[in-house]
């Protein structure tokens, strides 16, 4: 069997217009060598396969991988009832950039394979596990079972994100984020271990979801990196015997 037939999430089909095929000959060669089925199609056919105004002349069909939380995760981004595909895709991209171990979409969140979400993720959808769970309670149980603490990003949170949260964020953490319009539902936020707010120094009413996610995730990255350095420095090194 070819790699395209056995690799979950692999590309299985490639549709391309003739101008793009002439320009991207190496891509087509590599695709065929990997066992990907390729087909030359018209501009009209490509337009029917996509929902963009100006298609780029190339469409890939991929298998959806069976995503699972990796062993001993340290950082996970959780979206609750985030229906906007652009926001969800951008958070997936941000989580990937921050080195998060996974993204979990809970409740009535958008399908991560929505075309707009895929485009907004800029490929990051295929770089890390992206999981879906309709029931928030079940999702939280999975996160706790993996050893993660649950931290809600909440504009009304009792704890202010900053140097005082370093010890909290040094531990394995799942950041829970809600929609821009409604935030995390109160009954969901109540199940978290901590509610943390990002301080706003100016007159802005709030941050958009992707910006808040970036601030929170990178705060965890900084805290966990500092903890790792301190732990390494405190570990005694045996000299030669």
UniProtKB/TrEMBL annotation:
Assigned protein family: Belongs to the class IV-like SAM-binding methyltransferase superfamily. RNA methyltransferase TrmH family.
A Gene Ontology BP annotation from the UniProt entry: RNA processing
Domain of life: Bacteria
Sorted UniProt keywords: Methyltransferase, Transferase
One term of GO molecular function: RNA binding
Protein name: TrmH family RNA methyltransferase
Transferase is among the record's keywords: yes
InterPro entries: Alpha/beta_knot_MTases, Ribosomal_eL30-like_sf, rRNA_Methyltransferase, SpoU_MeTrfase, SpoU_subst-bd, tRNA_m1G_MTases_N
Domain RNA 2-O ribose methyltransferase substrate binding intervals: 11-65
GO CC annotation terms, alphabetical: cytoplasm
Gene3D superfamilies recorded: 3.30.1330.30, 3.40.1280.10
Domain tRNA/rRNA methyltransferase SpoU type: 75-218
Organism: Actinomycetospora corticicola
Pfam family, one: SpoU_sub_bind
């Amino acid at each position: 069997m070819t790699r395209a037939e056995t690799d979950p999430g692999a590309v299985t089909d490639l549709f391309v217009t003739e101008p793009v095929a002439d320009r991207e000959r190496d891509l087509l060669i590599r695709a065929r060598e990997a066992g990907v089925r390729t087909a030359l199609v018209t501009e009209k056919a490509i337009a029917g396969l996509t929902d963009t105004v100006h298609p780029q002349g190339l469409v890939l069909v991929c298998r959806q991988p069976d995503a699972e939380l990796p062993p001993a995760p340290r950082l996970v981004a959780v979206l609750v009832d985030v229906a906007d595909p652009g926001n969800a895709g951008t958070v997936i991209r941000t989580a990937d950039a921050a080195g998060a171990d996974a993204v979990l979409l809970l409740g009535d969140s958008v399908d991560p394979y929505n075309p707009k979400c895929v485009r907004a993720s800029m490929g990051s959808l295929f770089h890390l596990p992206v999981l879906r769970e309709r029931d928030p309670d079940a999702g939280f149980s999975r996160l706790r079972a993996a050893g993660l603490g649950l931290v809600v990003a909440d504009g009304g949170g009792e704890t202010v994100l900053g140097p005082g949260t370093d010890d909290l964020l040094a531990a394995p953490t799942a950041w829970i984020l809600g929609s821009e319009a409604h935030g995390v539902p109160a009954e969901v936020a109540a199940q978290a271990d901590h509610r943390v707010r990002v301080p706003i120094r100016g007159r802005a009413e709030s941050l958009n979801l992707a910006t808040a996610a970036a601030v929170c995730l990178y705060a965890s990255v900084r805290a966990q990196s500092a903890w790792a350095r301190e732990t390494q420095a405190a570990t005694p090194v045996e000299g030669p015997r």
